[in-house]
Prior knowledge:
two-stranded antiparallel ribbon; 39% helix; three-stranded parallel β-sheet
Amino acid sequence: MEYTQREIAELRRLVAASRRIVFFGGAGVSTESGIPDFRSTGGLYRQEWDYPPETILSRTFFRQNTAEFFRFYRAKMLAPAALPNAAHDALARLEQDGALSAVVTQNIDGLHQKAGSKNVFELPGSVHRNPCAECGPFYP
């Protein structure tokens, strides 16, 4: 998406005039890094799996179909080669400059942190912190 110079200037003005900014984001931020979202044409909801993604990612499915869960998880949830893009970098700079208080994201990829953001809230969790189903500790 291309923005006009007027839109960019307005965003700069709003940022400069703000005392506290919190960024709320989701899949659109990481798609530029090559991570597919769930709902677009090439997204996970449009792909053929034996079960819908929202079913596969449920606790019940994990307990009943652990091997299928991990097949999907490895194939579609992990992107170890993905790198932060310009949006991740810009948000990290805003935080470092003191203009951004926090990032609240639905993304599970850790790219905000990889770009340098420190105050990141990942609402559904992260592929980088996986709790043991039996004893509770988190593992990478």
